[in-house]
Design brief:
alpha/beta, single chain, 327 residues, TIM Barrel, eight-stranded parallel beta barrel, binds 1,6-di-O-phosphono-beta-D-fructofuranose, two-stranded antiparallel sheet
């Protein structure tokens, strides 16, 4: 989560901690934990507290606080619910056409966060407020557009809207390789610029897609997108599953510790097929999933989410986890 030593100013006061080199994610986490503990409790002396409170910007703390509402034990299961625009209402089985129904079930199952567009967040706050974290997606497009325009996502709200809604993070898509990459990057950076000011983490849907890309799930292509997302300052990356544990591990390697979450994708033939993918992602070093169709197109949304949570958070195997799902 923390990619560089934001606590450099506290190192001098903690030589025993700062001696440990910051080479891995775990070492970053350890140092961050020690310092947070140090500044949180009265057993530190006033000088240290003073140093922290005067040198750590508010927005850093805000980003940390919000990320920790989404990532539990450094991992997350996020429900994606922007399909009404991205694909149209036909993505939803009739029993799940009302977003309240899906959200209620997802919350009962214990989902860590829900990613949705501002309009749906507004309509459903009575269900999710105070029960799960909110990721507001600020770009989208419909498939009603002419085909060539579908490689571009438009503004679907602003960072102010996300803040007004009480968001814990914002999200935006970048189609790496699109002829509109330039416009999407401008959008990404204007969102990120505002979000950074207010301490809102930015999730990037890093989707390689464009005329030069023959196979968007190819490991080289996904790796490239994930690396580009890292270099564009994403706090969380959501990207395509490359089909195997080994190839997905290659993707994880290029993000320098920025958490990578698997994008669910079209519904798999059986729940077990999907749960096996989730296990592979976790074994490869992924930090969880952002999933839509594979859970809400199943009649047992709750069971599917419970099964995914069991794998992501409890290291349960897919054959065991699938028992949560009712046929
Ligand atoms: P799924 O789990 O259903 O694939 O949802 C992930 C997601 O990125 C959604 O956020 C978005 O609506 C959809 O996939 C976009 O799908 P497509 O691949 O058709 O652009």
């Amino acid at each position: 989560m923390i990619k560089f030593n934001l606590f450099a100013h506290l190192d001098e006061q903690h030589p025993q901690v700062s001696r440990v080199p910051l080479t891995t994610d775990a070492s970053h986490k350890r140092r961050e934990k020690v310092y947070f503990k140090a500044i949180s409790y009265t057993r530190v002396n006033t000088m240290e507290k003073h140093a922290f409170s005067t040198m750590t910007p508010y927005n850093f703390v805000g980003k940390y606080v919000r990320l920790s509402r989404i990532l539990r034990d450094d991992r997350a299961v996020i429900l994606a619910l922007d399909h009404g625009v991205e694909h149209g209402p036909r993505d939803f089985p009739i029993e799940h056409i009302d977003p309240h129904v899906i959200i209620r079930k997802a919350i009962r199952a214990g989902v860590n966060a829900i990613m949705m567009l501002p309009g749906i967040a507004r309509l459903t706050y009575d269900v999710w407020a105070g029960k799960t974290a909110l990721v507001v997606k600020l770009t989208s497009k419909t498939n009603l557009r002419p085909e060539e325009q579908r490689l571009l996502q438009s503004d679907f709200g602003y960072v102010d809207d996300a803040i007004a809604l009480g968001a814990d993070a914002v999200a935006a898509t970048v189609y790496w390789g699109s002829p509109y990459e330039d416009a999407m990057l401008s959008r990404w950076f204007s969102i990120k610029h505002m979000a950074d000011i207010y301490g809102l983490p930015c999730l990037q849907l890093a989707y390689p897609r464009g005329p030069a890309i023959k196979d968007r799930y190819d490991v080289e292509v996904v790796r490239y997108g994930a690396r580009a997302a890292t270099e564009s300052g994403a706090d969380l990356i959501k990207t395509y599953y490359t089909g195997t544990r080994e190839t997905f591990a290659e993707v994880i390697k290029v993000t320098s510790g920025v958490p990578v979450l698997m994008s669910g994708g079209p519904r798999r033939v059986t729940p077990l097929d999907f749960l096996r993918d989730v296990e592979n992602v976790m074994e490869a070093g992924g930090r969880g999933v952002v999933v839509g169709r594979n859970v809400f197109q199943h009649h047992d949304v709750e069971g599917m989410i419970r099964a995914v949570i069991a794998i992501v958070h409890k290291d349960v195997g897919p054959e065991e986890a699938v028992k949560y799902v009712k046929d």
